[in-house]
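Q: What does the assembled structure look like for these inputs?
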Amino acid sequence: MLKFLLEKEFKQFFRHQFMPKLVVLFPLMIMVLMPWATTLDIKDIDTIVVNHDRTGLSDDLVETVGSSTYFNLKDITDSYDEALRAMEFGEADLIVEIPAGFENDYVETGAADLLVAINTVNTTKGVLGRAYLQMLTAEFAGREPSPAQSQTMLTPKLEVLVTNMYNPLLDYKHTMVPGLMVVVVMLLCGFMPAVNIVQEKELGTIEQINVTPVSKMSFILAKIIPFWIIGIFALVVCMLLAWCIYGLVPAGSIWCILLFNCLFILTMTGMGLIISNQSSTMQQATFVMLFFVIIFIMMCGLLTPVKSMPDWAQAIAAVNPTKYMVDAMRGIYLKGSNMTDLWQEAVALASMAVILNIWAIISYHKNS
Amino acid sequence: MPAVKVENISKSYGKTVALDGVSFEVEQGELFGIIGPDGAGKTSLFRILATLILADEGTVTVEGFDVVKDYKELRKRIGYMPGRFSLYQDLSVEENLQFFAAVFGTTIRENYHLVGDIYKFLVPFRKRKAGKLSGGMKQKLALCCALIHKPDILYLDEPTTGVDPVSRKEFWEMLKKLQRDGITIIVSTPYMDEANMCDRIALIKGGRFIGIETPENIRRSFSVPLWAVRSGQMHRLLNDVRAFSGVKNCYAFGETHHFTTGEGFDRDKLWSYLEGLGHTSLWLEPAEATIEDCYMQLAKM
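A:
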């Protein structure tokens, strides 16, 4: 029985003018475009320097700022008001004002003041811009020791050496790619079968099926199984793309990735089934799904770390299957985590899968 | 054993009562029609008979099987064609038929003798997607799919709504033939000429059956005087007759208007009243009730 139903599902799927393309295009789009679009690396901060000093040292500083890839030196003026106006018009993100007597102070006392004004409409840009500039000036001061300082050279100097673990080059794309794979699997496996079931309701074809000896179970399985296969296929496409484009291969085991994806797929299909039981039109189903997709994506730690959210938001994220999945995928991909490290995530996903699927069965019986 | 035995079933959706204590029996091999206005509960009745929904009260047995307890067994024996086209529009004619044969564990070849007469119309289009067929062809395909597993009983919910007159006629000829093959058929229709093709018809109104009779007896039981009227000013005539005292119900009926009358009606007074209103070439005669008149009377009640 299931064989005929599956045959029909695949026939319909491959006959659809859009769906088969989607299964390839969707992972491709997400894998090729999204890591670049979701990057939090800040580059090209438009900077104006207001230089009242015009000495060798201040020119050196301007050159240091200008030659950094973080800053994009737009202009050097001697009017702070003019620079501020440029910022108001969005032409500058950062203003560095070098006061008159900068070199003089530095040589005499070993310290000099700088004024930095930052546009924090985009906080990330503002905060990172400040940090970069601090880093740059500290480096600058180390390179050009003031004569006043060299007299007190005997004081021991503390140097901090930073080692980045698991993503040594701080490549933001490496952080995003495993998480984006979760998004692909979530959309394909959680929501497509639900929409498909609701579509049969809306077109009335389910009526004709219901008067045949086809059991409910085989009907639903025939709807879900193709998308399990499609989901795993899309995952493989994603992993191949990650390898080809970003040179990213999982540090951990591929079997571990597969196991987590199976758990996650079960969770998402359970949820999709609940939605399909409650909806009678595709429009309803799509809207409810969209609601959950947005919450799942925004609160899973993919874009912003869950740990920096307020407690109540962390409580919501704790019941978000996507969060566990993103953690697990990043762990396996970047850290090489294994099941011993990730048992908590596995248990969380497995229990959600059980709860959601039982709920789906109960809500199904209520509606029939 | 009657093919269908319905005892006192009721069904409501919230406060809306769809069926209110309906009882009837359908004999083996009978062509049974259900006639009633939209919203009378026809579809709910079909859905209960087809084991798709449960009645709130009452029992239904079809071919000796209870629709609630033995629904699995029953589903192998019934063919149901819903009012709305509900085959897979993105599968071809042939694929649809194959699919429905397969889920019933049979093949097209095995039961071709049953659908052959109907399917032959579809053979030229068998590679065409079902969604791209004309209305009449869709109905024929739906009937084939409902028949392919050799059901004992066939339910057809408004099968000819939205189908052209030629296809309708063909469709009823097919039904007559199926009936001769021994299949019990229950059909609902809003078309009065089709009601005459049934062995017996049930008139349904507001979830109740108000009469189960042969079409002939239904016509005979029309209880009030019925008249036919015609004039050179047909459009105006309708409202003029309605305004006359003693006229109960007046409606367009082909080339004439039919109206029923109550107490205090006088033919001659109506004649002079209409002449006074400037109606020319006036014609006014008693009429014999058709099923449509019965239906109109029913719908107004």
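The first helix of chain A runs from residue 2 to 15.
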